[in-house]
Amino acid sequence: MIYLDYAATSYPKSEEVYKAMEDVMRNVSVNAGRGSYHLAKKAEELIIATRSKVARLAAVPDIGQVVFAPSATIAANEILNGISWEAQDRILVSPYEHNAIMRTTEHLRQTKDLQIDVLPLQPDTLEIDIAKSMDLIHLYKPKLICLTQISNVTGYILPLEVLCKAAKEEQCLVCIDGAQGFGLLPLEPLKDCTDFYLFAGHKSIGGPFGIGGYINYSKYPLKPFLYGGNGSDSLNLSLPESGIKRYEVGSPDIIAVAGLQAAIENRVSYEVIYNHEQELIQYFRQQTADLDDLILFAKDTPTDKCLGIQSFAIEGFLANEVGQILDEEFDIAVRTGYHCAPLIHDALLSKPYGGTVRMSVGRYTTKEEIDRMVEALEDIMEYG
């Protein structure tokens, strides 16, 4: 199979990830921090070591700023439901946000009487209109601004630094959805203008499902959203007033943690993976430039502002039909539909096609696989 669905999850993982997870499953698969015996302590040490590696990637000095969760979506719920809201507070979102953000903010709008506003786009390139967006930030002074780091539909890299700095001028909280960006883009430039950064272990960093979380850059005191045991102070019916154990409840997935640690240890550099993904997408665009019935969405977004993803459609086909043909006839895996990103498709004009066919590349994608993809698209358009 040719796997071109890296935006959904990285696959395959590196051998080091598989080996680390198997080793922990066989030899250290106990409840971390829930016992005084040496194996439980060893499991806890693995969690601490992995937390430290994430902290270094995130450019934070305190590992207590790294909170693990089963996924970035659960982490988003912990953050957004952990903020102290008042009626008529405003949230600004980009049109590129994933439903991890949009459905959670919609729930808050309905239950907390909040207002949600969407940042404007430049209609030709579909980039964020920075001037108009900064005007909105200064006008509305929102309680929170939510920005995805990289669009999971088009690969567009949002101009986070300038928007986050403007938000901080108005004392806004800033939440960045880094599910697509963690491991692809450095976080050092964002550390002083961001409050929360969501990350997923199973996407670009190359780890497994079951481990994600967030970085609390500002140490904002979130209210707990999840409650339960954490292996400490068990006679107290209240969670601790501060610290990681206020937010991490339930038995930790030590096997997924081991996979994340191995993925971080064996990752390639930001520059190498960035250049690899950009080269492949640009190559795909060059090879398909003469295909008249192929519609490349966001084709006018500058290529140096996009990374690893190309959405497209074929005239006369729905997106899911193209995806099914690619799978059944050519053994190529892509994602089709709306990709859990409800707002951007109005700007893309993709709804008549049932969304987009999304090709997303990663660490192990080759030019030969892109050639196979192009040949498959040519066959679909020639023979229907």
UniProtKB/TrEMBL annotation:
Matching Gene3D superfamilies: Aspartate Aminotransferase, domain 1, Type I PLP-dependent aspartate aminotransferase-like (Major domain)
Keywords: Aminotransferase, Transferase
MF terms (GO), sorted A to Z: transaminase activity
Pfam families hit by this protein: Aminotran_5
Domain of life: Bacteria
Domain Aminotransferase class V as annotated: residue spans: 2-372
PANTHER family cross-referenced by the UniProt entry: CYSTEINE DESULFURASE, ISOPENICILLIN N EPIMERASE
The name this protein goes by in its record: Aminotransferase class V-fold PLP-dependent enzyme
